[in-house]
Structures are given as C-alpha cells and as structure tokens.
Design a protein that fits this description.
- There is one protein chain.
- The longest helix has 22 residues.
- α1 packs antiparallel against α3.
- The protein folds into 2 domains: 31 residues, no CATH class; 55 residues.
- The protein has 3 helices and 3 strands.
- With 93 residues, the protein is α+β, with helices and mostly antiparallel strands.
- It is elongated, with a radius of gyration of 19 Å.
Length: 93
C-alpha cells in the first residue's frame, strides 16, 4: 500500500491509500484517509459562540483588542477548535 496526496477539482487536498499495483493517476479510487469534512460544521453556532465569548471577555472595540493582546486570536481559536473537535468525535461514534 502507498499513500498519495492529491487535489480535487475544487482545490481540496485528499489522502488516499492505493495498492502498489494501482495507478497514481487515479488516486480517487483508493481508500480515503481524510479528516472529517469541515464544511459540515454549523458555522452559525461557531459565530454565535465566538460573539458570546467576545462579549464575555469585553472585546467590543479595536481599543479593547489592542489592550488585551492575544485575547482575540485565543477566542477565535477556542470556538473553532471546539467545533472541529466535535466533528472528529461525531465521526468516531
């Protein structure tokens, strides 16, 4: 078996496992080895959670985010990471 990384017509990268005898010119026929499809995340929920976290942290103006360095990126990271982790967990259940 060999692992190939390929790009579909929409620009998404994929990983597939191919038999040694399979042509690398048709990687889509292999066994998919991709992460879960993040397009299935409910981004409206992520948006709401991020908004609520910004309010809780008092990040309401550009002055607020300049006075609290790292808080904005931390809030974005927390909300996006939670959504992605939920997606990975759904895949395993």
């Amino acid at each position: 078996m060999k692992i190939v990384v390929w790009v579909d017509s929409e620009g998404y990268k994929h990983r597939s496992m191919l038999r040694d005898s399979d042509s690398p010119l048709r990687p889509e026929i292999g066994i998919p080895s991709d992460p879960p499809d993040i397009r299935s995340i409910d981004w409206d929920v992520v948006t709401r959670d991020l908004h609520n976290l910004l309010v809780e942290r008092g990040l309401l103006t550009s002055k607020d985010i300049s006075e609290k360095p790292g808080q904005l990126s931390n809030a974005v990271n927390i909300t996006a990471t939670r959504a992605i982790i939920r997606l990975f967990r759904q895949e395993t259940t």
